[in-house]
Amino acid sequence: MNPAVLIVALLTAASLAQPAAALTVRVDSAGEAPRTLVEGKPVRARMFWGAPGARPVYFAEGAHQLSLEFVAVADEPTNATMHFRFGDTPGEVRLDDIRVTDLDTGQDAVPACTFDRGETDFTRDWAFWPTGEQNTVGTVAVTPGAGRDGSGGLRVTLKAPADGKWPDFHLYHQPNLALVGGHRYRIQLWAFAEPARDVRIHFTRPGIWDTLGAPGDVFASQLRLAAEVGVDFVSFPCPLPWPAPDQPVNWSAADAACAAVLAANPRALLLPRIGMDPPDWWRRAHPDHVMGWEPGTDPASLLYGAANGAVVASLVYRRDAAERLAALVAHLEERFRDHLAGYHPSGQHTGEWFYHNSWGSALSGYAPADTAAWRTWLRARYGSNDVLQEAWGDPAATCDTAEVPSPAARRAAPAGVFRDPVAERPLIDFAEHRQEAMDEELLQHPTAFHPQVAAVVDERSMLRMAAGSAVVGRPGLYEARAPLGHLGAPCGQYLGDDVVAGRVSAKLSVFLTEFCLSAAERTALLKAPAGSTRLWCYAPGYHDDYRVSPEAMQELTGFTLAPVSPGKAWATPTEVGRKLGLRQAFGVDGPVRPLFAAADAQPEEVLATYPDGSPAVARRDSADGASLFVGVPGLTSELLRLAARHAGVHLFTQTDCNVYANGPFVAVHAAQNGPLELDLGRTGAVRDVLSGETVGQGPRVVLTLQRGDTRVLRY
Predict the structure, then answer these.
(1) Is pLDDT at 24 greater than 70 in this prediction?
(2) Is pLDDT at 96 greater than 80 in this prediction?
(3) Which of 198, 183, 112 is CA-nearest to residue 147?
(4) Which of 266, 282, 300, 604 has the largest CB neighbor count within 10 A?
(5) How many Å apart are CA 135 and CA 139, to the nearest integer?
(6) Pick from 586, 534, 532, 590: nearest CA to 566
């Protein structure tokens, strides 16, 4: 069996459960721009995302007895936790006699915490985060005399961090509490504050971090505000009932989540966000299908519910999760069928479908179900042991006995930023398998937006990145979003295979991660329309399938790229670059390996140099267009505007600004205070779409904006 990708399995099962006469919501792509249709009629596509949350509780200076109430919005029978967040103000907070009572049953959800027995009372029920070196602000201690009437109390002392960056320091109860959706609860506690401060108190569950209840919840009022301006699409957390086989299904929490939205906005079109991590009983029943971690890892110590995750490649998990989602969809369609616009299954790290603890150090992939899925993938990829052995250069390798690569091998980086395409072939394969196991099969939508600038990411190239490669990946991809956004012109985001397939036509193509390409792929990329400009980042074409290839790098960029080893991967503009508008040096303030220079660039082609004087940024023109090589990781908006001007891209602004444009509309979002000059490219009146005011006459309009201001214009 060829296992379906998780999201496809879930959505397929869900679609089978829908009744025939439900509300229909579709995206129509028949025209130039897609439209959202409700019952066949176009509607505004604006969407509100929100969740129940906590309004700050004011702790006045000095000692006070507090009594607060809230209604639980969902059931959580075993895994709820209570959080205190103290804000970013230095000082002291003392807590004592913390108690939470279910007013519907009279039972304690949190029995009285008095801290009279010292640290034991704290460590048994409470903890704080962050810990270790990440905790730069807070200390927590049970102190005699710090509580009410001189009793023992919990003293929280906060100091300003040396670097000015406050972490999300908070106190939390161990995740072992039970709440019942719809029940009213009372929080009672004694508190002392010096100075006065706002404190956020709320209940949540690890993993999805949806708020289960909080005093002063503002969710309903936010929904009403959105409804007043015609925003009726609402995305919100919705629990997934997943009972043990011998237990009945309790739909009350899911019903309550939907009903709460409709109570605030009776016109709401619901898009429930459904957490797909399995419950405790399932994890106990299927231990081989729960995420497995490298030796020495305590899953309970990991953040964001990592201990709750299933192996996404597990067919057992996919089957059961799809079954439960289908049941929920069928129930909601029966109960709320006139309001359901769609469904958003969410899971793994922060519900965003990337592996739990991806931001942490502990490695996953070591459950028996992981090993089984890995071997299944190898059989599908290679077909026979002979082919596998040749690819891996290992005569002992077999599809039925291959083990998941060790943590040491996964953390090693013997060749620097990239994996060695020969010696580390098993690691490259494992990275590809892991991504395919998590990947989503998405429907192909016709392109409705044709910007003149394309930012291109090649997924397969990212599989070649070794441990420690964030020194390139963060500035070169993650942080590149800022200069691309501030370019002054609209920018589309595409996958490399879309460009190879000829689906993308842009005046300027920014190739962010084209590190691994076949000969056929290189040929396709170079078939861009004549006169277009290609900007190549860092190490384009470094891997020719499974070998390192300087020839492939030259074929792509038009430059002979030679390895260099300056003390830092830093690009400083030359006089040629400064004349073209480059002022800002950029890159990585440290060594990077590998690193390349345009060795055959002529002086008039060199726009920036490394500290050793070798060409770090160079531009070469040819009959087919321009090629711009950027050897350091990262980009600047100045450099992108330089490339855009050379490519003939229409720049709406010559300074940093977020610009979105399509047809007669342009939206701008100010990146700094002051006047913003817009070049709209044609004459005529320019109106503010929201106010109706005429703000000027094209082609040039000057707006006075503050950072963060947004204007939507029609011209």
Answers:
(1) yes
(2) yes
(3) 112
(4) 282
(5) 9
(6) 590
For the cut 90, the answer to whether the pLDDT of residue 543 exceeds it is yes
Determine the pLDDT at residue 531: 74
Measured in Å, how far apart are the chain's first and last C-alpha atoms?
A: 55
**pLDDT at residue 443, rounded to an integer:** 36
Q: What pLDDT is attached to residue 304?
A: 75
List, as one string, the DSSP characters of 689-711. TTT--EEEEEEEEEEEE-TT-EE
Percent of the chain with pLDDT over 70: 94
Burial group, residue 468, by CB count within 10 angstroms (0-12, 13-18, 19+): middle
Spatial CB neighbours of 692, under 8 Å, sequence gap ≥ 6: none
Judged against a pLDDT cut of 80, whether residue 440 lies above it is answered with no
Mean pLDDT of 668-672: 95
Residue matched to tokens 């993308």? 504
DSSP code, position 502? T
Under 8 Å between Cβ of 333 and 340: yes
Task: Report the DSSP beta bridge partners of residue 185.
Answer: 70, 102
Predicted TM-score (pTM) of the model is 0.69
107-143 b/e (C-beta count within 10 Å ≥ 16 → b): eebbeebbbeeeeebbeebbbbeeeeeeeebbebebe
Q: What domains can you pick out in the chain, each with its CATH number?
A: 6-48+217-351 (no CATH), 57-206 (no CATH), 368-438 (no CATH), 453-647 (3.40.50.880), 657-714 (2.60.40.1180)
pLDDT of residue 127: 95
Residue 245, phi-psi category: left (phi > 0), alpha (psi -120 to 50), beta (remainder) = alpha
Of 50, 48, 52, 49, the C-alpha closest to 211 is 52
Task: Give buried/exposed letters for 480-490 (b at 16+ CB in 10 A, else e).
Answer: bebbbbbbbbb
Token pair of 612 as six digits: 């050793």
Between CA 297 and CA 302 the distance in angstroms is: 9
Handedness of CA 186, 192, 197, 199 (dihedral sign): negative
**Which region, left, alpha or beta, applies to residue 663 given φ > 0 means left and ψ of -120 to 50 means alpha?**
left
Distances (CA, A) of 549 to 253, 500, 531: 57, 20, 27
Average pLDDT taken over every residue of the chain = 91
Residues 341-380 pLDDT 10s: 999 999 999 889 999 999 889 999 999 999 999 999 999 9
Structure tokens at 132: 């270790």
CA–CA gap between residue 223 and residue 258 (Å, rounded): 12
One-letter amino acid at 476 equals: G
C-alpha triplet 101, 75, 315: angle, nearest 5°: 150
